[in-house]
Amino acid sequence: MKLIGSLTSPYVRKVRVVLAEKKLDCPLLVQDVWSEGTTIGQSNPLAKVPCLVLEGGEALYDSRVIVDYLDTLSPVGRLIPPAGRERAEVKTWEALADGVLDAAILARLEATWAGRTEGERSHAWMDRQMGKVHAGLAALDQRLQGDRPWLCGTHLTLADIAASCALAWLQFRFADQPWSVQYPQLARLLDKLMQRPSFIDTRPPQP
């Protein structure tokens, strides 16, 4: 199988971290989905990454679908409980972290997309999206209060990976904002995960 993605996408990073934690070998094919020459549409009709192409040529897309599948391929480092309330809890926190990213990316596109002039940008829209970002991060940070080591259970799960990928991307793309100060418990989790080879090896290239 092969993973189609970019080096800066936080959703792709989430998948790459899971691959590393599960000790699964999967080459990364770097694609710029904004390029006129991109071929991502041949595998994902939505032209989005990440996209996991399986051995037979079938494709899986959406990072949540991909990581769910990857966690079944190896018993090493189980990241998602197999069933029940514990599974729903991990997937809910993953969905919240991904929702933070969804909102932040919409805000950034509104602020930076070259297809609009400054007068055409909606600051009310950007404020609305960033309000969602802060609400999501506050909930994640609150979950970690009291020196709780992980978001769910007693060991690393997909919830921790998703939350850390989200905060790391915000620090990368919105570097002027004091994320670590505003959300110290979440920053503590990120600092811990940044010591793991899976996070070290997936750092995006610095601008």
Summarize the structure.
Residues 1-78 form the GST N-terminal domain. The chain has helices at 10-21, 63-71, 84-112, 123-143, 158-173, 179-182, 184-193, 197-200; strands at residues 2-5, 28-30, 51-53, 59-61.
Q: How is this structure best described in words?
A:
With 207 residues, the chain is of the alpha+beta class. The chain folds into two domains: 2-71, Glutaredoxin; 84-196, Up-down Bundle (Glutathione S-transferase Yfyf (Class Pi), Chain A, domain 2), CATH 1.20.1050.10. It has helices at residues 10-21, 63-71, 84-112, 123-143, 158-173, 179-182, 184-193, 197-200, and strands at 2-5, 28-30, 51-53, 59-61. A hairpin with a 5-residue loop joins strand 3 and strand 4. Helix 1 runs parallel beside helix 2 and helix 3 (84-112) packs parallel to helix 5. The longest helix is centred in the middle third of the chain and has 29 residues, at 84-112. InterPro entries: EF-GSTs (IPR050802), Glutathione-S-Trfase_C-like (IPR010987), Glutathione-S-Trfase_C_sf (IPR036282), Glutathione_S-Trfase (IPR040079), Glutathione_S-Trfase_N (IPR004045), Thioredoxin-like_sf (IPR036249).
